[in-house]
Amino acid sequence: MIPKSKFFLVLVLLFAMISCDNQTYKQGRLVYERNCMNCHMEHGEGFQNLIPALKDSKILDNDQELICLIRNGIDTKDSEEKVQPMPGNDKLTPTALSNLINYLRHEYDIKPTVLLPKEVEHYLNDCNK
Amino acid sequence: MKAITKLLVLFTITISIAACKDTETELPYLGNPTFVNGKESKYQVPAWKFLNQDSITVSSADLSDNVYVVDFFFTSCPSICPKVKREMFKIYDEFKNDNRVKLVSFTIDPKHDTPSRLKKYSQKLGVNNDKWWFLTGDSDETFALADDYFITAYADPEAPGGFDHSGQILLIDKSSHIRSYSLGTDPESTPKFIKDIKNLLHTEWNDTKE
Fold it and tell me: What would the pLDDT profile of A38-55 be if each residue is shown by its tens digit?
């Protein structure tokens, strides 16, 4: 039989390990790393005037615009003003989008309200490609 | 006893090899040399002529008094280009005030990347148009030239943005030899590449080492 104190110790250690991982919105960060980081860079700092920094982005607190922007991207092939396009992300599910947006808003301290996958789905229906 | 001696010898050799890496050795000449009448001639990138972002025709001959850094990209590239451009920008920044170093970015999408579009791109990037050329020309010629620089580039409707290409950055000396390269997609390879550029500047201008 394992002595009670040892068992307790293991439990405490396990707990400590879990709580050490203090990255909140982990799923959202993962979505960010896989889909956005190549261009918007590791901490959303953007790049010169080619790629906008995320923390200065006004669109982050507009549910509808933000969701459609991530979904459809920005096509610049025929644009006079813009050069660098943003690719659309038609494979991101409402849950992934919700995780991503909640992560970004948490990261940049914008409107602490949480966007649910169901709400995302509703907004997505209004993005006509 | 003998085993220990052997180990010691091996250890010393390893250390001296590692130490050698730190001293400045001459950069290699990349690419296969050709042999004419038993005489070796090193690989050189063929001469080229393209339009820059100021709509001026420029050529490789204009760079015979420079060492230059090359990459291939296109302005509407959604995949690896921003990463590579950031590394190119670091290099630009490092040699901003050294006129011996130039940067050359060839577009592989000349149909869309006209000089005026490239100019807009360089303005957004905030770089000096004389120091960093953005070049456009014939599409097939550009693909062939990429090949001469050992870079993969071709049109592929399946690829993001319509083109597939690799993100290497190359270092060319005064005489069109390729002397070093780095992976533009890997920020960790840039410091070594910058060191290589400094090394090449020393040998090309017979500078004394600082």
Answer: 889 989 999 999 999 998
Lowest mean pLDDT among B64-68, B164-168, B191-195: B164-168
Any A CB within 8 A of B83 CB: yes
* Closest of B144, B145, B129, B156 to residue B60, by C-alpha: B145
In a domain, B40, yes or no: yes
Note whether residue B3 is domain-resident.
no
Tracing tokens 């690419």 back to the chain, one arrives at: B31
- Residues in A closer than 8 angstroms to B120, CB to CB, are 83
Contact B76 A76 (CB under 8 A): yes
CB pairs under 8 A between A and B: 48
CATH number at residue B102: 3.40.30.10
Which residue is closest to A85 within chain B, CA to CA?
A: B76
Going by C-beta distance under 8 Å and a sequence separation of 6 or more, which residues neighbour residue B32?
Answer: B43
The confidence score (pLDDT) of residue B16 equals 60
∠ CA A78-A81-A86 to the nearest 5 degrees? 65
- The closest alpha carbon to B113, from B137, B129, B131, belongs to B137
The model's pTM is 0.80
A90: helix, strand or coil:
coil
B81's tokens? 């280009």
Total structural domains within chain B: 1
* Reported confidence tier of residue B13, pLDDT bands at 50, 70, 90: low
Contact of B168 with B183, CB cutoff 8 Å: yes
Which domains, and CATH codes, for chain A?
24-125 (1.10.760.10)
3-state secondary structure of B83: helix
